[in-house]
Amino acid sequence: MADQQPTQSSLASTFPDPPPFWQDFTPEKISRIEELRKAAGAGVDAGATVARIPDVPGDLVNLQPPAEPQDGRWRCFGDLYTLKDELPSLEEQGIERLIPGGPEHEQQAQPSSVTDGPHTDRALVLKRLAKSLLLNFLELTGVLGANPGQAEEKIGDIRTILINVHHALNEYRPHQARQSLIDLMQGQLDRTRAETAAVRAATDKARSVLEGLGSIDVPAGGVPPAAAAMAAGGLAGKELEEAALRAEREKWAAIDAEFA
């Protein structure tokens, strides 16, 4: 197993090789691990699978998922990750802090200063860093023209400024996420209120139409007054039916006009 451990350079390369334990996934070992899983899951509900098998043989260790990291950290492609994703401080990264907000600064902060206290003006801090970055770049061009061998120090200063800029932006991400959530919820609330107002308006309009229809006098026999008058004048049969249909169309036209 020791000779299968990948080197740090192979893990962090641009196109890393596949992990060496792929050679353990042979048909024979896969069938063996499946039999062990069936035996371990005999007392488990049907359809359930056992993630990890205790006391598995050494040659089958790589065929089951790895155990959860005990310290909450793991390495992937040469980079270290943690279960609790937190922004590391500049001091933990070994970078000189050029922006307020460090542990020592919080103890010595003066609330009267623009860049001190819990409510730091980050826009002002970023503007100062941007001006400092431009100045250092101008100095770098001068150093490269006079003595290129001394440009390494100035390049390091520019790198420190850029890392501080990125760190200041990343510290603002939680506030950005909260504000984005507030805007999203406010938009949903506005849409719900608009839909509720539209439903209430349609309800009021329908109620007024129904009240208007309820105020229409209908004879007990179900024959409209116009049709009754025509019948009294000597109209009968088909003409009387057409008159009744015409009166019904007029009613529906009035209803459509109300809802239009």
UniProtKB/TrEMBL annotation:
UniProt keywords, alphabetically: Activator, Nucleus, Transcription, Transcription regulation
Pfam families cross-referenced by the UniProt entry: Med7
UniProt cross-references to Gene3D superfamilies, sorted A to Z: 6.10.140.1520, 6.10.140.200
Keyword Phosphoprotein: no
Region of interest called Disordered, as start-end residue ranges on this chain: 1-25
GO cellular component: core mediator complex; mediator complex
GO molecular function, one term: transcription coregulator activity
GO process terms (BP): regulation of transcription by RNA polymerase II
Compositionally biased region (Polar residues): 1-13
Family per similarity comment: Belongs to the Mediator complex subunit 7 family.
Biological role stated in the UniProt entry: Component of the Mediator complex, a coactivator involved in the regulated transcription of nearly all RNA polymerase II-dependent genes. Mediator functions as a bridge to convey information from gene-specific regulatory proteins to the basal RNA polymerase II transcription machinery. Mediator is recruited to promoters by direct interactions with regulatory proteins and serves as a scaffold for the assembly of a functional preinitiation complex with RNA polymerase II and the general transcription factors.
Quaternary organization: Component of the Mediator complex.
UniProt protein name: Mediator of RNA polymerase II transcription subunit 7
Source organism: Pleurostoma richardsiae
